[in-house]
Amino acid sequence: MHHSEGIIEYATLISNLVNVFASLGYQHDLQTVSNMRLALEKLPPDLQMRWNELVTNGHRQDSSLEDFSDWLQAIADAHERRLATASRGSSDAQRPKQRFGQRQGNAGSFAVNTGTQRRKDTPGGGNQGVSNERWST
User: Fold this and answer.
1) Running DSSP on this structure, what letter comes out for residue 117?
2) What's the pTM value of the predicted model, to 2 decimals?
């Protein structure tokens, strides 16, 4: 069985990554096989197999990160429904539900390098660069 929260968070991360790449005009990065491979390798083996079967059966060797994100979003939606069903009648049912895309918290081992961010909270209002983590395994 999959760790649903991790899959949901990873789907959000991939969706955000695709949105950033698209907004910056990085179409080549959305089509690059190596980026697809990196994203796919983070999934459990059976989900990797499901993606590969989809691509093979659909005869789509040119699948992009956008296609992958859409597919992974559907998987995450199914996991959210499963979590919602499982939480009925439990103490979790008393908590306000968060909708997909509104999650907060740690994405676990799913992190991406988006470049350098500028910090405004440094003494004197300095602009020290803070690098994000690279893809981790």
Assistant:
1) E
2) 0.61
